[in-house]
Design goal:
There is one protein chain. The longest helix is centred in the first third of the chain and has 11 residues. The strands form 3 sheets. Strands 1, 5, 9, 10, 13, 16 and 17 form a 7-stranded mixed sheet that branches. By secondary structure, this protein is mainly beta.
Length: about 210
């Protein structure tokens, strides 16, 4: 459990050091994460604001989403499990909902976390994650979804439906599901986390980049 109000991210530390030295920070390279247990969506409350970070559970390192690219390699390809919302392709790129499967394939085990939010702060002790938008190679895409178990959809980028855009989670929990990509390309997934504190709606929105390769 983190005890400070807000962690300074790895990229932030480096940028601060470069700025102190009077150097150009634009060349600082983004981090690529391609395997291991990573909470892609990790919400924090610093006492005044909500924040969304990426938390690498393997190294206990926190990143700003803008500084991270998630790699989804060809090794993530599996036979289409037959969920209707996954399209008609024979294969999909899947980041699985169990660590054993992820480790066997050498791919990311992605989490959705509220474990750093404590009880008694947010109304009903829950917050809501919303998939605000999704693009692939710069255009709106229907090719991304998150589902649990046997095709139980949590999120779906398909614009033909207004369902499966938001899901509420209890605070203090750690959640895993399958992250599915139907085509190769660069995905930009924008998520918002939102909750109510003292009758006031608080939220944070960030964009997450996934590079899906064949």
């Amino acid at each position: 459990m983190r005890t400070r109000r807000r962690l300074l991210t790895v990229a932030g530390i480096a940028a601060a050091a470069l700025a102190t030295a009077g150097l150009n920070t634009s060349a600082f390279a983004a981090t690529t994460l391609s395997s291991g247990h990573v909470d892609v969506l990790d919400a924090e409350w610093d006492g005044a604001d909500l924040h969304l970070h990426v938390h690498d559970e393997e190294t206990n390192t926190e990143y700003d989403p803008v500084d991270v690219t998630f790699s989804v390699p060809a090794a993530a390809k599996v036979a289409n499990p037959g969920c209707g919302f996954l399209g008609s392709g024979s294969q999909v790129w899947l980041l699985p909902d169990t660590e054993i499967e992820a480790d066997a394939a050498g791919v990311l085990f992605p989490g959705i976390s509220t474990e750093h939010l404590t009880t008694g702060v947010f109304a009903n002790n829950n917050v809501t994650y919303t998939l605000v938008s999704a693009t692939r190679n710069g255009a709106a895409t229907e090719d991304f979804s998150i589902y649990a178990g046997s095709c139980a959809r949590w999120f779906d980028s398909n614009t033909a439906t207004t369902s499966f855009k938001s899901r509420t989670f209890a605070v203090g929990t750690h959640n895993h599901a399958n992250w599915a990509f139907e085509e190769a390309g660069t995905y930009q997934l924008t998520f918002r986390v939102q909750g109510t504190v003292g009758g006031v709606t608080e939220s944070a929105t960030e964009t997450f980049t996934f590079n899906v390769t064949s």
